[in-house]
Amino acid sequence: MAENDDRVRLKVMGLSYSQIQAGAYALILAQVGGPYRIPVVIGAAEAQSIALKMESITPPRPMTHDIFVSFAHAFGVKLEEVFIYKFEDGIFSSEMTFSDGERTVTIDSRTSDAIAIAMRTGAPIFTTPEILDETGFEMEIKEEGDGDHEPDSEEDSMTANREPRLENYAIEELEKTLQKLIEREEYEEAARVADIIKRKRGEQ
Questions:
Q1: pLDDT truncated to tens, each residue of the chain (204 aa)?
Q2: Regarding beta strands 8-17 and 104-110, do their DSSP bridges make them parallel or antiparallel, or are they unpaired?
Q3: Domains and CATH numbers, the chain
Q4: How far is CA 17 from CA 36, 101, 139, 164, 166, in A?
Q5: Which of 8, 27, 70, 149: disulfide with 145, CB 3.0–4.6 Å?
Q6: pTM of the model
Q7: ∠ at Cα 58 (159, 122), nearest 5°?
Q8: 3-state SS assignment for residue 52
């Protein structure tokens, strides 16, 4: 569609604690093929859902976004895309476009929910150049290595300060801790431990 040719595609880069709002998190969206990052303040529940997907952790019971995706798939409905179309008074507004092959429907959504669902379906995420200009910040892209490693290094920089003491644990101890956290349904902490395990394995 010609009117959408100038839209900017985004991908989920990582999560960090929000410096703006206590008890909230900053979801970092990255410009695909570019240096800009957009921080979106989201709640703890949505951050937990996104973190689980980022770390490929399967909870014992499906979460709300998992149920929504299963429901849509059961009825042959596909999420075509997420579009962050407005930023006003510090709030991002998004819409999700669904199709069943015959009808296409666009509905309004909270950005955090839309992205949590997009991550589970592989649907693309877009925004406007205006929103990118207004809310984005430029992240220096390291020259060493290829671009495929850049997301990992950036995630590491955002998560490195979270649990410094856990870094000293052996991988076996961390894996036991991860299992206990999942059993207790403490998914937010489990995602952090999983991230540390992934980084420690990469260093071996």
A1: 334 568 999 999 988 876 556 667 889 999 999 999 999 989 888 998 999 898 888 888 889 999 999 999 999 999 999 999 999 988 999 999 999 999 999 999 999 999 999 999 999 999 999 999 999 988 654 444 444 444 444 444 444 333 335 666 778 877 888 888 787 777 777 887 888 888 878 765
A2: unpaired
A3: 2-159 (3.10.690.10), 162-204 (no CATH)
A4: 19, 40, 18, 15, 17
A5: 149
A6: 0.67
A7: 80
A8: helix
